[in-house]
Amino acid sequence: MRIANPIMSLPGAMKALLDLSASAANTGLDADLVELICLRVSIMNGCGACIDYHSKLLRKANVTDERIYAVAGWREVPYYTDAEKAAFALAEEMTRVHVSDAVWNEAAKHYSEDQLAGLTIAIGAINLWNRINVATQQKVA
Length: 141
Description:
The chain is mostly helical. The chain has 8 helices and no strands.
């Protein structure tokens, strides 16, 4: 660990980021989907602390092992709906900071404008969590 986690040590940061992350829930998005998205993005970003955390949350929510373990290969397995696959594609492209019209339009077929807003906020928030944790070399608790 390079420094104490800034989210924990900077006054107001934890509440602000928790509030931002929680705002997606107010859009009617399925909570398990949001956690799967957080897991997928955390895998992409190599954030061990977040991979551990979101995997445990998914197991606690009784998400099947197949859906948890296969999230990195979501395109190749039958465990996800077309809507979930559209959300994964959006998450991957947002994480790479370029969202094609094709990916956006596919997501828009499955989610309302509020839900798309929730997805983009959730994806942005987990990317922030990941970047802070990776930059400061936070470890699995």
